[in-house]
Amino acid sequence: MTISQGTRVPTAGTVPAFPTATILGYPRIGPRRELKRALESFWAGRTTAAELEAVAADLRATTRARLVALGLTGDSAVPAAFSFYDQVLDAAVTVGAVPERFAHLVASDGTLDLAGYSTIARGAGALAPLEMTKWFDTNYHYLVPEIGPATAFRLASDRLVAEVAESVASGVVPRPVVVGPVTFLALSKAADGAPDGYEPLDRLDDLLPVYVALLERLAAAGAQWVQLDEPALVTDTLRTAPDALAAAASRAYAVLTAAPVGAQRPAILLAAPYGELRESLPAVALSGVEAVALDLVEGSVPSGLTDEVRAGLAAKVLVGGVVDGHNVWRTDLAGALDRLDALREISGAVAAATSTSLLHVPHTLADEPQLDDGLRSWLAFADEKVGEVAALGRALTSGRDAVAAEVEAASAALAARAVAPGVRVDDVRARTSAVTDADRKRGDVAARRTAQAERLRLPALPTTTIGSFPQTVEIRKARAAHARGELATDAYEAAMRAEIERVVRLQEELGLDVLVHGEAERNDMVQYFAELLDGFAVTENGWVQSYGSRCTRPSLLWGDVSRPAPMTVGWASYAQSLSDKPVKGMLTGPVTIMAWSFVRDDVPAAEVADQLGLALRDEVADLEAAGIAVVQVDEPALRELLPLRREAHADYLAWSVGSFRLATAGATPSTQVHTHLCYSEFGEVIGAIDALDADVTSIEAARSRMEVLDELEAAGFSRGVGPGVWDIHSPRVPSAEEISELLGLALGSVDPSLLWVNPDCGLKTRGYAETEASLRNLVSATLTARASLAASTPA
């Protein structure tokens, strides 16, 4: 069939036209982090809920107008995907899945205000927040719903409905975005007290009527299409097997599409981002959904289809995700059009889109005037990607000649990138080529433990922190003034040394055993290194939401990486000069640097990882030479980059673990190597954690109440381990009794000689008052535990 602006599937006449160009989502924090500031002001009690709502409404209005101006025209082209904190939390609140401990926050009419919503996300007092973990293979964190056999599902929130009505009133008919029912339940955890063998997905039939009711409300508000995100269908690494997920999808969408499109429901776009539909493709193709969004960056155009599956897809709009929503490199428009043409061989109704939501990339290159012009020409942030999608949509409606200039410019930029200086550095490539297995191996673990014990002479259950201490307003002002040239380097360094001394003295006063320098000089645990390594560029306003109000500025890893000079030695040496206790040298590991940067896509990831590993190996050697006895190489993102398909795990784990070992294996036996991992499902990588060969591993464990320890014990993990006893992502101050309880759980699984006591993560985002109070409780609980151990040990 002929594709026109607003493609229509060749089925029921009541199905509304689908735009030929769209995106699956857009950054929601604001180009200047307006929502972050409004949220934090509300949480601090400086502003009201009404003022927060006003900021959010302004952001939504600005986003709608911006997307229309960038070329997303026609009804349903603009997604309605706003969130005050997290889209999974939004889904839980919408369907009434509020855990019992928060029931008192729900009003008599069943609604939850912004204060209650925030409490579920962040915790308060004795109320622990929902657990947080990674969203598929991204650096975004979602809040894990708690679903039990008795969870009472109901349509409890009309926020999304109101957002649709707001948009319609402004003249833009949006496409509301909701986490799909299968993914929502597949990512949930069983509520406390659930029977053995119970899975939240068991509640699918109970949940679906609420989604049916929501669809009807969205239609009444003016939505013609709704986007249901089902990324659970592209992976085989969840608790639920892919075939069971496919069966659940078949059952769910039979119910959700039972009513005709119109007054009872909008047409449904089922989106499957972050990977390729495989096991679930037949179920989706044969379902009654009117459109399917396929990730054609991580996946490919479906092939080898049965006649039945091909016929099912032919009856739908196929939305080709050919613009990468997960990285910042400019799209090869010619190649993207080739993939869209291949889709048109399956269905005559094809639209161009991003592969994922643009939540994962910064707002616009227009805010980065300092970037090198050559590098800029290789990039596309959210707004530029919208422009790419719009151009592809024009090509679908008017032919390639209509966008010939855009296609030619993209091709020229890609060609220039390939030969630009620094993209390939022969000396760097020669060094990685020369790496051998011996370069990734340290000495015997037992011998190392003995040498480190003699050198460090630590007490039982040694206490430490993960690295950073609170970054005060004064620190940030000094850094900003130095960056603007308003504060001389000598004065800036003097201010940082003063803060380091303050942090060291505080830790000594608190009674911690292994100290840190607090990282006052670091703007970010990745950007700091990116600014000192060749092959990187950094942004000024390239903010990306990590969770809630927490944003990061991923660096741009565009070329071959090397270390021109030592990066941390001066600061670590100064801190160590202030104390007789060991001070950790703090480095960010190669995998985490990659995970929290936008990494080049023109060479294998293993090559990039080894380049980083060698740069860090040089830094470890210089720290040792300066007398640093403990070096921590953080890898919180090790699990984050784990592929969504098990078949790719072995290769990923080989190069990721290999790069860490390349960075650390040169250390002498008496140097204690630590690493840190956080906010992940660790079961998949327990073997890899052991294979890192770190002497001590600290792990996020407080929110999950030490769940990871069962996995470590079952795996026979026999190295030092510090399961976090304080959830630093919540403003709560844990009591000494609460920490003692967690320590008791840890001692039930870990040999006391191997157990460390520490927070879940760095303290950069916390204030000093809560930090001091929490660390005092941590040390107090540890002293109690030591006394108990001593009393139970035979003389």
Describe this structure as you would to a colleague.
With 795 residues, the protein is an alpha/beta fold. Helix content is 40%, strand content 11%. It has 27 helices and 21 strands. It has a seven-stranded parallel sheet. A five-stranded parallel sheet has the order 16-18-19-20-21. Helix 5 (159-169) runs parallel beside helix 7. It is globular. Mean pLDDT is 94; it is low at 1-13.
Helix content: 40-55%
Mean pLDDT: 94
Give the amount of beta strand, in percent: 5-15%
Helical element count?
27
Strand order of the largest sheet: 1-5-7-8-9-10-11
Task: Calculate the terminal CA-CA distance, rounded to whole Å.
Answer: 87 Å
Number of strands: 21
* Parts with pLDDT < 50 across at least 5 consecutive residues: 1-13
Major sheet description: 7 strands, parallel
Oligomer classification: single chain
Overall 3D form: globular
Rounded radius of gyration (Å): 26 Å
Structural class comes to alpha/beta
How are the elements arranged and paired?
Blueprint: H1 34-43, H2 49-69, E1 79-80, H3 87-94, H4 114-122, E2 132-134, E3 141-143, E4 146-147, H5 159-169, E5 175-179, H6 181-186, E6 189-190, H7 204-221, E7 225-229, H8 242-256, E8 267-272, H9 281-285, E9 291-295, H10 307-314, E10 317-323, H11 333-344, E11 350-354, H12 373-377, H13 382-398, H14 404-419, H15 426-433, H16 445-456, H17 473-483, H18 489-510, H19 527-530, E12 534-537, E13 544-547, E14 550-552, E15 555-562, H20 569-577, E16 584-588, H21 590-595, E17 597-599, H22 605-625, E18 630-634, H23 649-664, E19 672-677, H24 686-691, E20 696-699, H25 707-714, E21 720-723, H26 736-747, H27 768-792
